[in-house]
Design brief:
The structure is a single chain. By secondary structure, the chain is mainly alpha-helical. Helices cover about 50% and strands about 5% of the residues. It contains 4 helices and 2 strands. The protein has a two-stranded antiparallel sheet. A hairpin with a 2-residue loop joins strand 1 and strand 2. The radius of gyration is 20 Å and the shape is elongated.
């Protein structure tokens, strides 16, 4: 028995928990930064003007953590998998998730760091 998806939810691209992807992203960012989910809920309200409970922030943030953990386990299993003799190793390489684009000067606590001869 599957969960019913409402047409408006599909049109608005709402997740199964009825939050939009953008709202969930902001909640997760607040949930990861703040020392408590209650404070994260306050941060979400300041950022978006919308109200949310600390419990909802906890659910969304922990759901994100479960997704990350599942992806990491899958990648680790894929990397550790022993292929057949005919497999080409390069075909099993993992894709770079966030490519380094336009690197320039980075600052860490006021210190300039030379990155790729660009600064």
């Amino acid at each position: 028995m599957g969960q019913t998806t409402f047409p408006l939810d599909e049109k608005l691209q709402l997740r199964k928990d009825s939050w939009s992807g953008g709202a969930a992203r902001v909640m997760t960012q607040c949930g990861l930064r703040e020392p408590s989910f209650e404070q994260a809920a306050e941060g979400y309200q300041e950022a978006t003007g919308g109200e949310v409970s600390g419990t909802s922030v906890r659910r969304v943030t922990q759901g994100f953590g479960r997704e990350v953990r599942a992806r990491q386990r899958h990648e680790a299993d894929q990397a550790a998998e022993v292929g057949s003799f005919e497999d080409v190793p390069q075909e099993r390489w993992l894709e770079l998730q966030v490519p380094l684009e336009e690197a320039g000067n980075l600052s860490s606590d006021g210190t300039m760091i030379l990155v790729r001869e660009a600064g």
